[in-house]
Amino acid sequence: MNGLTYEIHHDWILYIAAFASAFAITLVTTPLAKKIAFKVGAVQHPRARDMHTQPMPRMGGIAIVIGFLATMGMMALLMPGFRTWEYTGFIVGAVIVAALGIVDDKLDLHPLLKLAVQIVVAVVVVLSGIRIEIVAWPFPAYLENFAVPLTIIWIVAMTNAVNLIDGLDGLAAGVSAIGALCLMALCILSGSPLAVVLSATLAGSALGFLPRNFNPAEIFMGDTGTLFLGYVLAVSSILGVFKGYTLVAVLVVCFALSLPIFDTVFAFFRRIYRQRSVSAWMHGDRGHLHHRLIDKGYSHKQTVIILYGVSMLSAIIAVVVAAQNIHAMVITGLFLLVLLLMLFVYRHRIKHKGNTCEACEARENDSEVPHEG
Fold first, then answer.
1. pLDDT tens, 263-311?
2. In what helix (H) or strand (E) does residue 56 lie, and over which residues does it extend?
3. What pLDDT score was predicted for residue 232?
4. How far is CA 56 from the centre of its chain?
5. What is the pLDDT of residue 333?
6. What is the pLDDT of residues 73-118, one digit of tens each?
7. pTM of the predicted protein model
8. What is the pLDDT of residue 193?
9. Distance of CA 141 to the CA centre of its chain
10. 74 CA to centre of own chain
11. Contact 233, 153 (CB under 8 A)
12. Is residue 190 within 8 Å of 243, Cβ to Cβ?
């Protein structure tokens, strides 16, 4: 990737401290978020598309927000790079997104109102100086005029993308953590300490919430958590990866965040095909990837682990492509090929075993039927 540098000094102790601090604060404050959710009535009752069968507190994202912002406050005291207009705009946007999520978890706001607020947040971020700068090769120079609208679309889309995959216990938190760790590696390659700290802190916050959110969950993150995670992932990718100035930057970000991006694009076209209204596009349905895996017979935990695996593989591909190491690319390609062959053989054996069992059961049933004569 153009613009990658290895000469920048990285404070690894600071990165580890950011991750550990966010993890610990989120882990400790999750029970508090649970109490707040019950106290204010932010409870998710089972719906047709939901997998849970009893009311659940859904404002657990408060713990993620607290863990992230508290850690960012400490980092701002230690790193001069945080004392900028860009960082100020990011924090203002983060607070607005968190507030939007809290209100929505309590009142269930109209989707178009939430979209309007998200656009305002994206504009605030852009005005602070944060924007996608993919204006060099292979794009013509006049595409620079599209930097602002492209940034707004990216922030709004990613903010909602994590929300769309939040359909199973632990899925959104785990996938976000994997995406954040991948972005952290990419930001280290691109030489952006500020973005490294942001992504490391986000990964710590998401993983700190996971112990109480993994199946069987005792609390949901709600829109407070999903919107916040999506927003921070979007801005972190702009600050750390989209500064690469080439098509490769777009490619690696798409791989790093492949699951939420693909699921969002798939949902968008699926709902257009069904000719639903613009307002209805932002309502959930049972057409997401995790629902399809559940419908194919996979258990709740199996589905989450499969999607974790997909996210991890995509993250590995993103880092390998960004590093531009031909040996690593070849090894990764061979690994993926072997993995695909193993999955094919495994699926074939399972299918063959299932057919054999059905045939045996049919023969047993036939032998139990008394013959006439």
1. 777 766 666 666 555 555 555 555 557 567 776 777 778 888 888 888 8
2. strand 56-57
3. 95
4. 21
5. 67
6. 999 888 877 878 889 999 999 999 999 999 999 998 988 999 999 9
7. 0.81
8. 85
9. 32
10. 25
11. no
12. yes
Q: Tokens in use for 171? A: 């899925």
Distance CA 27, CA 6 (A): 34
Distance CA 109, CA 40 (A): 16
- The DSSP H or E segment spanning 57 is strand 56-57
In sequence order, the β-bridge partners of residue 57 are 43
Q: How many CB atoms lie within 10 A of CB 252?
A: 28
Query: Does position 350 have pLDDT exceeding 60, yes or no?
Result: no
Give the H or E element holding residue 117: helix 111-127
Q: Mean pLDDT, the chain, as a whole number?
A: 79
3-class SS at 192?
Answer: coil
Please tell me the distance from the alpha carbon of residue 68 to that of residue 22, in angstroms, as a whole number: 6
| Cβ within 8 Å of residue 218, ≥6 positions away | 34, 56, 212
Distance CA 24, CA 183 (A): 21
Type of residue at 157: A
Q: Provide the CA 63 distance to its chain's centre, in angstroms.
A: 17
Question: Which residue has tokens 């993308």?
Answer: 161
For residue 319, the one-letter residue type is V
Work out the number of other CB atoms within 10 angstroms of the CB of residue 301: 14
Cα–Cα distance, 175 to 308 (Å, whole number): 6
Where is 151: in which H helix or E strand? helix 147-164
Segment (H or E) for 78: helix 61-78
To which residue do tokens 């600050």 refer? 239
